[in-house]
Design a protein that fits this description.
Elements lengths: L5 H12 L6 E9 L8 E10 L4 E5 L6 H9 L10 E6 L2 E2 L5 H7 L4 E4 L3 H4 L6 H11 L6 H13 L5 H4 L9 H13 L5 E5 L7 H18 L2 E5 L3 H7 L2 E6 L2 E7 H6 L4 H8 L14 H9 L4 E14 L5 E14 L4 E6 L5 H8 L7 E6 L2 E2 L5 H8 L2 E4 L13 H11 L4 H14 L16 H14 L4 E5 L7 H18 L2 E6 L2 H7 L2 E6 L2 E6 L1 H6 L4 H8 L8 H6 L1
Parallel strand pairs: 3-8, 3-9, 6-7, 7-8, 13-18, 13-19, 16-17, 17-18
Antiparallel strand pairs: 1-2, 1-4, 4-5, 9-10, 11-12, 11-14, 14-15, 19-20
């Protein structure tokens, strides 16, 4: 099979561009990595255009250069990375020749970026309303009362509830999906000509994904905005892309229209990525393994939750009264050894709160949590500490959950050493885990900031496995991973289950992923379970209206990756 040549790429770009000048033009951009020995590149000799009024999706694995090229456009590369050659032209202006003051004037007004990790991108000491208003204040836009109205308009525009109250909230009080919508509101505040979206729907549930994708597509069409959409989700690509660019190890290997790339992929790497996309409907659910099913039937549940309740005070209302939110409202379920229970639902449905309750990271207001037959809910922290190693969590935000001052080796070793494992044994196990999650051995001595979002999530998975737990609560554990690594991690979790009999509570917004790994699913809506059953049953014959809405909202539901590989 022939690969895409530079001539093919240039021809495809010219056809797509027609006679119109591109909004953004990247030519022969190379960004070397600061390493000794053999020359390595974050981005190497890439060229492509983005026109006003089109959405170009950039896809590839972690470390392929997707986010690096986006940061280069915005002038946000770290100080130790400098382009070696090439140009980045925004309406004919070479951004690589601009100083910081000049780039600052362009950011927000001419070009804006939606970042991948909203918790690290938002200022924890400012309310979300003030942060949106700051974008307008810096550029002297929407003066006086118009600025306040614009903040409320943007919060409502991106689908956030009760904007008048939510604008006074701090970022940590919002769910991951809500924080991402705040980031989108900030990026859209001044209606830039170029919008760079770096995995903007990664942390969002399918219904919110559908709303955000429709929102970006609508604004793009209304304003004639050019959109560079970085994503690993091929469903999203199928839903919104006009053109697709595929990157591998810093190089551009294929590009074309969405129909050409998704339905008739030419490059082996593109075909590999499409082959790793989870299939619709749960055909590959590990519950088909007869030996595991027998073990699950014979054993009593490892975890049994009965009538779990958790409420939060959501802040003061107009008369100073606090609004009570029933985050988890009378939830009951059980999980056996070697079984995977999927918990799906929208942001704010109570999925992550269930996970925190199981780990005793938050107090509960009622119900029982039986682990190994013992109710752990009333245990104090001191009483629960000996059992904490048996229940581990893979957190949703890999940046916020890793100590930025500790090396990866220390992060993986601290838990086992605190539990009495000798240092040498803990370090050996840590290196084995890095290999299991497919990180280079050199990661042991590096820091979290040196890794991509997907790589940091793999560190989080390795940390959870380091304690050799009986139960793992995975809160969106593969949402930040590209499809090929996602498939590898799901296989790894299944293998560990079969070998060690680990039980898994798998919290996710991605119904396709849930169908691949889960034996059974519970669907959460406003703190309650509205439907439960095997994945195939929920996909083929959903009983509840909410479940049907979730399935209908999955991006790219009309695209079949299996058929693409037959082309």
């Amino acid at each position: 099979m022939s690969t895409t040549t530079e001539h093919d790429i240039a021809t495809a770009a010219a056809v797509a561009a027609g006679d119109d000048a591109p909004l953004l033009s990247i030519r022969h951009l190379s960004i070397p990595l600061p390493r000794q020995g053999d020359r390595k590149y974050a981005v190497r000799d890439i060229s492509y255009d983005i026109h006003a009024g089109e959405i170009v999706c950039i896809v590839g694995e972690s470390g392929s250069g997707k986010s690096m090229s986006a940061n280069a456009i915005m002038g946000l590369l770290p100080s130790y990375l400098r382009p070696e050659q090439g140009s980045i032209l925004l309406e004919g202006r070479n951004l690589l020749d601009r100083d910081e003051d000049s780039l600052r004037a362009l950011r927000g007004r001419e070009m804006a970026m939606i970042f991948q990790e909203p918790l690290s991108a938002l200022n924890p000491l400012m309310t979300v309303g003030d942060q949106i208003a700051e974008v307008m204040r810096v550029h002297n836009a929407f003066p006086g009362p118009a600025r306040e109205r614009r903040v409320l308009e943007l919060l409502e525009f991106v689908g956030l509830p009760d904007p008048a109250t939510l604008r006074h909230s701090w970022p940590f009080r919002l769910s991951g999906g809500q924080r991402q919508r705040v980031m989108i509101a900030m990026a859209l505040a001044l209606e830039p000509k170029l919008l760079i979206a770096d995995e903007p729907t990664t942390a969002l549930d399918v219904t919110t994904q559908a709303q955000i994708l429709a929102l970006i597509a609508r604004i793009q069409k209304e304003r004639g905005m050019g959109v560079m959409f970085v994503t690993h989700d091929f469903g999203v690509v199928a839903e919104i892309a006009d053109r697709v660019i595929v990157m591998e190890k810093g190089e551009l290997v294929e590009q074309g229209t969405v129909d050409e790339v998704l339905n008739r992929p030419r490059h082996p790497y593109t075909r590999k990525l499409i082959g790793a996309v989870p299939r619709h409907g749960g055909q590959a659910s590990p519950a088909r393994d007869g030996q595991r099913n027998i073990r699950q039937v014979e054993e009593k549940p490892l975890l049994q939750v009965e009538g779990l309740r958790k409420t939060y005070a959501a802040g003061s209302g107009f008369w100073g009264r606090k609004r009570v939110v029933h985050a988890v409202d009378g939830v009951s379920f059980s999980v056996r050894r070697g079984q995977t229970l999927g918990v799906v639902g929208e942001s704010g449905s109570g999925k992550s709160t269930i996970g925190k309750c199981l780990l005793k990271l938050t107090d509960i207001d009622g119900g029982k949590i039986l682990f190994g037959g013992d109710d752990i809910a009333p245990l104090s922290e001191t009483q629960f500490r000996p059992r904490r190693r048996d229940i581990q969590m893979i957190f949703q935000d890999p940046f916020a959950s890793l100590n930025p001052r500790h090396t990866i080796g220390r992060i993986l070793c601290d838990g086992p050493m605190a539990a009495g494992v000798p240092r040498k044994q803990a370090e050996q196990r840590a290196r084995e885990l890095l290999q299991l999650v497919e990180l280079d051995a050199s990661a042991f001595d590096r820091y979290p900031a040196e890794f991509s979002g997907g790589q940091r999530q793999r560190v989080g998975i390795a940390r959870a496995l380091a304690m050799e737990p009986q139960l793992i609560v995975a809160d969106e554990s593969v949402s930040a991973l590209d499809v090929s690594v996602q498939a590898q991690v799901l296989r790894l979790l299944r293998q560990l289950q079969q070998k060690l009999g680990i039980a898994l509570v798998f919290i996710t917004h991605d119904l396709r992923v849930a169908a691949q790994i889960c034996d059974s699913l519970i669907v959460m809506h406003r703190g309650k379970i509205v439907e439960e059953g095997p994945p195939q049953q929920l996909f083929e014959a959903p009983r509840h209206d909410y479940t049907r809405a979730l399935i209908a909202a999955m991006p790219g539901a009309h695209w079949d990756p299996a058929q693409a590989l037959l082309a």
